[in-house]
Amino acid sequence: MTVRTRQILVKEAASLFDLKPGVVEDADDDDDDPNISSGYPKDELNSAIGYTSQMLDLIVRYLGIKLPFCLFRKDIYTYIRSIPHSRLYQNQSKMPLYLENDKNFRRFLIGVSMLNYNIVYLCYTQGVHIPLSQVANTLQNLLACCNAPGLGL
């Protein structure tokens, strides 16, 4: 009964965020400016990462799983850091999960990598194998986890 309840909660969380399989469209070859299609506004990127971290937080709470990296919020910003005394990543500084400007770009990339590691770890706990080449597919991996046959076991 507990497993079924967990599955329902995770499915409902996925539906709240309208998480569904999609297709990444290639940029038009006729485009005069190749930079238009390759860049995303910071606000859209930050919103997507923010929603992803919120969804991940909900799912792990529903499933009762402790992640390798800790997500937390301060004001409107989301951060991630290693759990104290972790052997996985010794640096205890918080990494931003928002892109502010070029000054925090490197730390933002480290934060997103940590977020992806958390998602792949969650997938592992639910019996979903994510190949190394697919680790950066954040939402695809999260969806795979939400659709895992053994979700909540």
From TrEMBL:
Superkingdom of the organism of origin: Eukaryota
Provenance organism: Absidia repens
InterPro entries per the UniProt record, alphabetical: UV_resistance/autophagy_Atg14 (IPR018791)
Keyword terms of this UniProt record: Coiled coil
Record GO biological process: SNARE complex assembly
Protein's UniProt name: Autophagy-related protein 14
GO cellular component terms attached to this protein's record: endosome; lytic vacuole; protein-containing complex
UniProt record similarity statement: Belongs to the ATG14 family.
Entry GO MF terms: SNARE binding
